[in-house]
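Margin note from the TA: students keep mixing up input and output lines. Inputs are the sequences; the output is the structure of the whole complex. Example:
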Amino acid sequence: MNARPFRKVLVANRGEIAVRVLTACRTQGLATVAVASEADVGARHARLADELVVLGPAPARESYLVAAKILDAARATGADAVHPGFGFLSENGAFARAVLDAGLVWIGPPPAAMEAMGLKVPSRERMKAAGVPVVPGTHDLSPEHLATIGLPVVIKASAGGGGKGMRVVRSEGELDAAIASCRREAEAAFGDPTLYAERYLEHPRHVEIQVFGDVHGRVVALGERECSLQRRHQKVIEESPSPVVTPELRARMSEAAVAAAKAVGYVNAGTVEFLLDADGSFYFLEMNTRLQVEHPVTEEAWGLDLVTLQLAVAAGQPLPQDLPEAPVAHAIEARLYAEDPENGFLPQVGTVLVYEEPGGPGVRVDSGIEAGSEISVHYDPMLAKIVAKGRSREEARRRLVDALGRTVVLGVATNVSWLRRLLETPEFIRGDLDTSLLSRLEVPASPEPPPEILAAVAGVHAAGDGRGVAPAPAAFPDPFAGGAFRVLA
Amino acid sequence: MRLKNLATGTVHEVTVERGEIPRGARAVRDGLTTWVHFRGETWRLARVVERPGAREEEEHDLRAPMPGVVARVLAEEGQAVEKGTPLLVLSAMKMEHEIRSPRPGRLVKLFRAVGERVDMGDPLAEIG
């Protein structure tokens, strides 16, 4: 494991998670190295680090996904530890091994544990053997065999994650098309067309347990995150604690999660995902062998800094003895995506022209963008995470609604207004969630602009060609240019 | 002046006059498009420019809503299509997105084949 103290950390990622990890390193007095593609040289994460290594052209497969270039960057800068963030190479056991073989500290789990959990079929078998409940499933996709599990089934990429290469099949007639489409996506996204199928629970919640292990053999659970609000299997809203998890259920799920982690010799931060059925039974879904996108809700609800804990554990320190045993607040996170909710949530590209982040008590923003950022087709469309906490779920929700209303992104369409309207639906307010809710829920549509906005915009356009009067700049306080109406071209 | 809400396609007829700018609004103009944020909602409003002799908004073109690569073609030239008939699949950001016919008619021409790269706004098909 090479668990030993280190001085200089290379963060092998981009965007908000690179910013998050680099910031944690700085607060620990560690020197930092960022890596960037040619397109990201001026990006927020690239400017934050002490040193920057440019990896190559914009496409990830020519930059952030090239293990050899990242190892070269570590060598060239004298970095003695590597943090992978999430996505890219973070769950690639061969990369973790290469980092360790180069004599560097890997700020993540042992490669063997990553590999044991990386393939869904063997990991399920291993979890079954360890006494962790699993959903009935198979890698034999013949109609006869699937009939023994019972429809509906969900077909997934064996090497997958993040909802890529997944299809629900409700009737035998849909099977061939679903398998063909899944294989294509699996091949494209992971280079491995292997599929497997499992029973599809009709209205389960997605509840996951944060686990943490140290190199001294201790593994702890740090509560649950409810991530039931997903669109096409991509998480949209996460919260901790779950509105339905009682202390008794939390204890049972935590016990199963710790057993899962111990079964593979897990060290560092990991997440054990479960499907929670309406009757309180839960089933192992998969283990994510890395920091999760939604780690901030655990941090806010439990009063912890998980990235700093990752650094300590990687340096060989034991986990603290005084970790909290229950959440101390309620936290909710909303993911800000560059996508157009009014047009099928298509990913959006462009230049961020105006960007304002909300602040205030209990509000946290993890962001990788700023005014001037280019949102390109090369990377994940998640731009930032807006998180709010409160003493109650309702206090956290109200703070998040207000924070989303104060989040301004102009120049690239985002889901921010849709997220705010989603948090105001009766279903969300009640906490009545399940993983298919977003496919059924009628989130109110974006209203048309009010007359005063139309009049103001018309006035600006008319002024632009000499037929109207420009609005007085003083009427528009703007932190950027002395007038909120900025004219670019 | 006519302003089109680019998210919904609704065109608003607006009388140009000097009015109060709503307090708390944020806006930026980029050419003919203005981005506005007001009370938690964001709009993209495009000024509809009437040029003498110009065709009504190039009704026959179906344009790429995002950059990507054509993963599959689902319809044939000459085929009759309904509103919503899947025409082709664009792959972008590791996800697949189905492009559907915006209206009933006949698929006159497909401008892109499987494997070809498209930029946002490129014509994909002509529906006659």
